[in-house]
Amino acid sequence: MKKLITLLSFFGFCCTAQAALITSSFTGNFNDDDSRYYIQFDVTADNTMVNLVSFSYAGGVNGAGTSIADGGFDPQLFVFDSANNLLKADDDNSNVVSASSGRSWDALINISLDIGTYFAVLTQFNSDYQSGDLVTGNWSPANQTNFDGRSSFFAFDISGEELANVGGIGHNVTPVPEPSTLALLSLALFVFGTRRKHS
C-alpha cells in the first residue's frame, strides 16, 4: 500500500509539473492603415513565459498550421497590463526575412508575466499608444498610405503554458476564421438545418 501511495504521488507530481503549451493564432485584414487588433488573455501562474510573434510581413507557418504568404504590412506588437500600463513593445525582432523585400520587419515579444489579465495589441508600424483607454484612447497615426504598398493581411500567435480565456477583437479589422473555426461553423449550420427540417 505504501508503494502504491508513493507511486501515485510521483505520478501526480509528474502530471502537474508538465503544463501543456497553449497557442492561439489570429489572422485577418486591417480595414485601414490605423486599424488595431486586441487580444485579451489571462495568466494563471506567476512567472509564466508568454510569447507573441507576427507573421504579417515575411509570412511563415503559424501555430494553427496555416501557411501565411509573404507580403503583409509592417506590424508592431504591444503588451499591456489590466491598468493600461505598457509592459513591452516590439517592431522588428523576429529575424524572419521577407523574400519579397529582404527585410526582417515582423514583431516578436517574449515576456514573463505573473497572474492577471493582460492585453496584446497589434498595429501597423508607427501607430503607438499615447494615452487613455486602449480602445477609445489616443494612438498616433501610422503615417502610411495603403499599407506602404503591401497587403492589409495580418497574422500572429500568442503562446504560453499557463494561459486562459484568450480572445480577440478588432478595431476596423476583418478577422479571417481559421480552417478549424470554419469547419465548426459549417457543422453547427448543418446541425441547425437538419433540426429545422425534422421539426
Name the average pLDDT.
84
CATH architecture, by name, is Sandwich
Kindly report the spatial arrangement of strands forming the biggest sheet: 8-3-12-1-14
Describe the largest sheet.
5 strands, antiparallel
Specify the number of helices. Answer: 2
N-C termini distance: 57 Å
Q: How would you spell out the order of helices and strands?
A: HEEEEEEEEEEEEEEH
Indicate the percent of residues in helices.
10-25%
Task: Give the C-level CATH assignment.
Answer: Mainly Beta
Structure commentary:
This protein has helices at residues 2-17, 179-198; strands at 22-30, 36-43, 48-54, 60-61, 67-68, 75-81, 86-90, 108-113, 116-124, 129-131, 138-139, 153-160, 163-171, 173-175. It is of the alpha+beta class. The chain has one domain (23-198): Sandwich (Jelly Rolls). The strands form four sheets. It has a five-stranded antiparallel sheet, with no helix packed on it. A five-stranded antiparallel sheet has the order 7-6-9-2-13, with no helix packed on it. A two-stranded antiparallel ribbon has the order 4-5. The longest helix is centred in the last third of the chain and has 20 residues, at 179-198. The N and C termini lie far apart (57 Å).
Which structural traits does this protein have?
alpha+beta, 18% helix, disordered N terminus, five-stranded antiparallel beta sheet, 199 residues, disordered C terminus, Jelly Rolls
Secondary structure layout plus pairing:
Blueprint: H1 2-17, E1 22-30, E2 36-43, E3 48-54, E4 60-61, E5 67-68, E6 75-81, E7 86-90, E8 108-113, E9 116-124, E10 129-131, E11 138-139, E12 153-160, E13 163-171, E14 173-175, H2 179-198
Antiparallel strand pairs: 1-12, 1-14, 2-9, 2-13, 3-8, 3-12, 4-5, 6-7, 6-9, 10-11
